[in-house]
Amino acid sequence: MDNLSIFLCFVIGLISLVLISFKKRYTYWKDRGIPYIEPTIPFGNLPQRQVHIKDILEPFYNQRKPGVSFMGAYFFRTPVVIATDLDFVQNVLVKDFSNFHERGMYVNEEDDPLSGHMFSLDGEKWKSLRAKLSPTFTSGKMKFMFPTVVDVADRFNFTLSEILETESELEVRDLLARFTTDVIGTCAFGIECNSLKTPNSEFRNYGAKIFDEPLHGSLVQLFLMLYPNVARKLHFRFFRKEVGDFFMGLVRETIDCREKNNVRRNDFMDLLIKLKNGESLDEHSQKLGRLTFQEIVAQAFVFFIAGFETSSTTMLFALYELALNPDIQEKARQEIQTIFGKYEGKLTYEAVKDMVYVDQIITETLRKYPPVVNLQRQAVRDYRVPGTKTIIEKGTAVFIPGFSIHRDPKIFPNPDVFDPDRFTPEQIKARHPMAFLGFGEGPRNCVGLRFGRMQSRIGLITLLNNYRFKPCSKTSIPMVFDEKKPILSPKFGMYLKIEKL
């Protein structure tokens, strides 16, 4: 037998072994009596073309079986759980959180320091960081930051008013992102970004790179999560090096300036500096230890990306729906003007709290357009599903299809209809507590939800009090999402007609 024949036999044998390995692995859920969708080699149940990440889980939720907690799936050759029952979702996120406190995200602090942030970390490191950073987001801290956000909103109003002198149909996505960028830059870093006046500011450009030019597509991101040890050996980065270098330099410069000049601003960066220096924040903080410089940068980074993108996206889709539903827009405007009258025309912390219908609009927007479309957890030990003999093995990833739950007609009748009255206290009480997952749920819910709601409310109130929004010829109806972006984003921009009141 010549060398070519030997080589061909080796290749054929190797391929056969790989195929046998996949086929054997793909009996995992069948052997356990769990409903599943037939996988294909080598992607399993992952699509072989670019789709939005929300569309990966949707078929499983749509084929859910009554009385069954979850569907089995295969991402490449790895078995994963797709939650389809709200009681099971509640067990994972809340009741049995101690079994599912990890997200199983890819973290590689050596090659990619920005990946070591609180959203991705697990175990004691996550627990410690959560305890350290939670004091930033108390209602007292929100009240302190409130005037700063209002100041940025006033500048936003002035900028938009100037633009409308020459044009009336605008692409509002970038404009809203510039507003939230300036808010986060000021509240977190104490930096006047001025991206409202200077659209190409460095701060805004690097923020845009993270979401508009992601380093990896959704399939590669799943690979990083499912095979983290392999990814680390290959020195994969989650974020672009220039983004990491920018934030490293920015935070170092901010800390040096503040410490050199003894500047205290009572903001997020202040808290991080105190933690770096081992200073006491409250009676518990001395037990929590110091933060390293790299840890500070990672936390400042995640505060920035979570704060500017999710809030701007929420306002974006809220304005879209209000443009398509002028009766709802007018009802919100009437509430705003009535409350303004009660508070002598001033936008105060108490005034915003009184604008209940505006808050319902934001919540309904988050229902229909949740920025984070899927939640994920990982079993930290073998877990017996309550009321069954089914065991979810340690290390198994659990995916919760938030977008599909929010669009389920059995939970929210006529789910494509935008209806803020779904979120009156009576309606909320009548639904399952896991029916709405706009900020996650349980101990790993969004730590900055108060801040996110606050800046979205202030931005929306300012806009509705001064402008009327209508669809125009460039408005996408129905909405088409950009499949390349992990956060819901309009594929063709967001064009609206804006009239100054």
From TrEMBL:
PROSITE patterns referenced in this protein's UniProt entry, alphabetically: CYTOCHROME_P450
Molecular function GO terms recorded: heme binding; iron ion binding; monooxygenase activity; oxidoreductase activity, acting on paired donors, with incorporation or reduction of molecular oxygen
GO cellular component terms listed in the entry, alphabetical order: endoplasmic reticulum membrane
Organism domain of life: Eukaryota
Cofactor: heme
CDD domains hit by this protein: CYP6-like (cd11056)
Annotated compartments: Endoplasmic reticulum membrane; Microsome membrane
Keywords: Endoplasmic reticulum, Heme, Iron, Membrane, Metal-binding, Microsome, Monooxygenase, Oxidoreductase, Transmembrane, Transmembrane helix
Gene3D superfamilies in the cross-refs: Cytochrome P450
Record membrane topology: Peripheral membrane protein
Classification via InterPro entries: Cyt_P450, Cyt_P450_CS, Cyt_P450_E_grp-I, Cyt_P450_sf, Insect_CytP450_Detox
UniProt keyword Nuclease present: no
Binding annotation for heme: 446
Keyword Oxidoreductase: yes
Segments passing through the bilayer: 6-22, 296-320
Pfam families the record matches: p450
Major localisation: endoplasmic reticulum
Protein family per UniProt: Belongs to the cytochrome P450 family.
Name assigned to this protein: Cytochrome P450
